[in-house]
Amino acid sequence: MMTTTVEAIAAIDDKLSKRFLELDPAGYFIIYLDQQPGLICAKHFTNEVNEQGLAVDPETGKPIPATVKVERQATALFTGRSAKEICIQLFEETKPCPVSRYDHAAYLGREFVRAELALVTGKEYIQD
């Protein structure tokens, strides 16, 4: 029987975080915590995906860098006190849903759970 350790899970997650991802043409989210009121926050930004598979600013057509902070106007802000609350708001109550890919929806669910754990434990949350 295989024993799963925190280190083994971290190694699996680290490896999987480096895989290629197709971008969601419906946009992307910046997830963060607002500790004072105890909220998970997700800002939604629109983008388009060019022929090379890069996210580009719909207004300028220029690629949006992944490693440099870019000042853009969010199209929506979603907040919740738990992963379930923010997921219901985002996927069930928002019409049309700002997520068009199942893999993106699954990623957001995982990130919201990580954010919730950080919120309740008082630890830092860094989006994967």
Give an account of the 3D structure.
- This protein is of the alpha+beta class and 128 residues long.
- It has one domain.
- 33% of the residues lie in helices and 18% in strands.
- It is built from three helices and five strands, in the order H-E-E-E-E-E-H-H.
- The chain has a three-stranded antiparallel beta sheet.
- A hairpin with a 4-residue loop joins strand 1 and strand 2.
- Helix 2 packs antiparallel against helix 3.
- The protein is globular and about 45 Å long.
- The model has no long low-confidence stretch (mean pLDDT 90).
> How many structural units, i.e. domains?
1
The level of helicity is 25-40%
Q: What would you call the shape?
A: globular
* Order of adjacent strands in the largest pleated sheet: 1-2-5
How far is the N terminus from the C terminus? 30 Å
Helices and strands, in N-to-C order?
HEEEEEHH
Low-confidence region ranges: none
| Integer-rounded radius of gyration | 16 Å
> Structural class, please?
alpha+beta
* Share of β-strand residues: 15-25%
Task: List how many beta strands DSSP finds.
Answer: 5
Please give the count of helices: 3
Mean pLDDT: 90
- Major sheet: size, sense and barrel closure? 3 strands, antiparallel
